Amino acid sequence: MPGLLIIAVLLTMNLITVGLFGETEFWFALIKIIAIIALIATGILLVVVGFKTPVGKASLGNLLNYGGLFPKGLKGFLLSFQMVTFGFIGIELIGVTASETENPKKVIPKAINEIPTRVIIFYVGSLLALMSIYPWKNISASQSPFVQVFENIGITAAAGIINFVVLTAAASACNSSLFSTGRMLFSLNYKNNSSFSKWLSKLSRRQVPANGIVFSAIVITFAVIANFVIPNTALFSFISSVATTCFLFIWGMIIVAHLKFKKQQKLQKKNNKSKFKMPLFPWGDYLVLAFLIFVAVIMCLDKTTLAALIASIVWLGLLFSIKSAARRME
Hints:
Blueprint lengths: L1 H15 L1 H32 L2 E2 L2 E2 L15 H15 L5 H4 L7 H30 L11 H8 L3 H34 L5 H6 L9 H20 L3 H35 L15 H16 L4 H27 L1
Antiparallel strand pairs: 1-2
Helix pairs in contact: 1-7, 1-9, 2-5, 2-7, 3-10, 6-7, 7-9, 10-11, 10-12
């Protein structure tokens, strides 16, 4: 019920105006940033004082004392690429927002350039803080490591706060998904002749792709129902692997589209005066494609991710067949 209620609230806000989406994301992001900075600061403090935990004490030695950097061997490290890649889903949202940004030439490059710094601080920094306080081998996969660490060192109030932050982070991801998929459904169906395409590409009086957003919310609702029917970590692992595979395809298509765009520019002899060019073009594009293929190959090493990979390929093939059949009918 809370999941359905959150979807309903987020859907309503996205239908009102795009400005409300931006305002909501600002506060969601602020909550996460403050919480993670507080976590990192707490981790540094506990390491400095050598705080005693139920399994030892907070120390930088916890990063290396339990099997080193690769305690499960190289295979364990490689298998983590699927979940890490899943964590980056949504990064393409920066490009989607360009059309509704007041000053895209200034804001979009700035946002892209800040991504590496934010990843290092908020992802790597928080993980280092967690594992310095509590050894990785004592962290359970059945609950949030943030909550578990704070509960086990006796800071129960902090654990409750972290739970709140986790919920706002999930709501933020859902909010961004509604925004992005609604816009993508609108643009992909714009000027198509089928009745369903015309319905998806219709703007509301507030110039919002309302029907695309509603359709996206309906699809997300199925995830809530699935989690209620099959509430276990195996389902999450499968769904996250499916999402990873789909986004490997999406990111790959973005790179292919960029290569094609640059080729057409060259054939038309257009002078590209963009101040924000793709670094190391075209080799940077090929390197990204190689990495995406590498992640797909890694997913073949585990039964759950392999099943998700196959399911995703079948799903993409089905979508392509339906699209081809629809075009023939037109």
